[in-house]
Each structure stands twice: as C-alpha cells, then as structure tokens.
Design brief:
The chain is α+β, with helices and mostly antiparallel strands. A 5-stranded mixed β-sheet has the order 9-5-8-11-12, with helices on one face. Strands 1-2-3-4 form a 4-stranded antiparallel β-sheet, with no helix packed on it. A two-stranded antiparallel ribbon has the order 6-7. β1 and β2 form a beta hairpin. The mean pLDDT is 89.
C-alpha cells in the first residue's frame, strides 16, 4: 500500500497580514535607531572638521602676525575681480580653488563639507559648504572694489573692515570661531552676531545664523579650540516675525546667544 502524502497548506490571508504587520512594527522600531546611529557618526565627523578648521586658523594667525584669515576680500586682476573668502577663492573666470586658510590643512573638500548638510552653496561656486566663520568680530570683510578720487582701485585689504586683533581676544573659550551655518535658504558661510552693530543690515545678519541640524544641536568651535554642541537656539534681540520666518528659518536655524556674547571676544 502506497502511503498517503499529507496535503501542503499555504498561508492564509490573515497569517500574511499578521506577518506584514509584525515586520512593519519591527522596521518602525529599527529605522529610527539606525538613523540615530548614522547621525551620531555624522556629528562626530562634523566636530572633527571644526577642530581641523580651528587648528588651520591658528596656524594662519601664527604666520600672519596674529591676524586671522579675512572672511571676504575682493581683488581686481587683469581679467576681472577675484573673490577671496576664508574657505574658497573664486577667480574671475569662475574657477574655484582652496582659499588662504587651506594652506594649513589637507583635503579641503572633505573638511569644509558638513556631513549632515546636503544643500548647495549659496555663495559662488563653492564645491563644499555647511560651515560659517565669525565675520562680525574675527574675520575682516572687504567691500566690492571702488575707485578713489585719484582713479585707483580700492580693493582687498584697502577699505576692508578689520577683525579684532588677537590682543583683543579676552574671552577665547566663550567666543565662536566656526560653526554649522544655516538660514532659510541653506548655509551662509559668514557668521553674524545678532545685534547688527557692525553690519547695520538686519537682513544680512539674519542670513548669517547657525543651523541646529544635528538632532537639535548646532556644533561650534571656539577661539580656544574646543568644540561642543550648542542646544540653545536664540532669536536675537532685534528679531521680527518676518526675519525669523522669511530669512532665518527659525527654529531650525538661530543664533548662539540673544546678544553678542557668543561672538564678541572682548
């Protein structure tokens, strides 16, 4: 006698639905954990970048008689105006090369890119972005070239608003040097203090905020070289709802302090 084979039974619809529900629940628990681990890795890389930038700026100041790099200068050349920023130099033909700070570090396209920022540059053709530099008090800022009464071009350091010299840095552990740049349009590489005492242009000031993109934190390196996450996102003492909404993009972006205390080293 040939033994009878037992009939093979497939999954019922209820069993399939229950299995799918269990997998969905497991994924919902797993994905946030993976995202947290990935962001922790990006945060560590970001802080390492900021440390390298601080070291490069300090080395620059040692070579150039205690002056930190200029935040922005415009220079007239035989073929047009060259833009020299603290991070990148853009020549008159649009070619972008590493700026003066990067003579003191390696692979600027890696160091200058915040790993948690995926947007494009909002200044020129910069190949990497995400960070900003204390332009209100540390980095000199030049005006676009103009002719003086004698017909000579005023460019570069001539006519630039100078940053505070190292001798005036009384609060290095409390003064921001570089950080995660952020405004509603992306990442502005010029860090502005909220009082507008230097710039006088609130739109410019509120475009120079800090991004709180690392799980609610904004990373910052201070003049003394230490790096830490900053959790207090401030509006600034001169805030209006229009500036907060249309320019800054608060609360995703904000200032490190309500006044200039996190930016002014005096």
């Amino acid at each position: 006698m040939i033994p009878r084979r037992s009939a093979r039974r497939g999954f019922t619809l209820i069993e399939v639905l229950v299995t799918i529900a269990i997998i969905t629940v497991l994924l919902s628990l797993l994905v946030p954990g993976l995202q947290t681990v990935q962001e922790a890795s990006r945060s560590a890389k970001c802080m390492a970048n900021l440390r390298q930038m601080s070291t490069a700026a300090l080395a620059y100041s040692a070579v150039w008689k205690d002056c930190y790099p200029a935040a922005l200068l415009y220079k007239v050349t035989s073929v047009g105006v060259k833009t020299v920023a603290w991070d990148w130099e853009q020549r008159a033909d649009g070619t972008v090369v590493p700026g003066p700070l990067w003579s003191f570090t390696n692979v600027p396209t890696e160091v200058m890119q915040c790993p948690s920022f995926t947007g494009s540059s909002t200044f020129g053709n910069d190949p990497a972005t995400g960070y900003n530099y204390n332009t209100s008090f540390i980095g000199a800022e030049g005006q676009f070239p103009q002719m003086d009464s004698d017909g000579k071009w005023l460019d570069g350091w001539n006519g630039a608003r100078k940053g505070l010299p190292v001798a005036a840095h009384r609060r290095p552990s409390e003064t921001a040097l570089f950080g995660d740049g952020g405004w509603r349009g992306g990442a502005n590489k010029f860090m502005r203090s909220p009082s507008a005492s230097v710039e006088g242009d609130l739109g410019m000031v509120y475009g120079g905020g800090q991004a709180f993109r690392h799980q609610g934190c904004s990373h910052c390196v201070f003049l003394d070289g230490h790096v830490r996450p900053w959790t207090q996102c401030c509006e600034g003492t001169l805030a209006t709802q229009q500036l907060l909404d249309d320019v800054l993009g608060f609360p995703n972006n904000g200032f490190l302090s309500e006044d200039d205390s996190a930016y002014d080293p005096r």
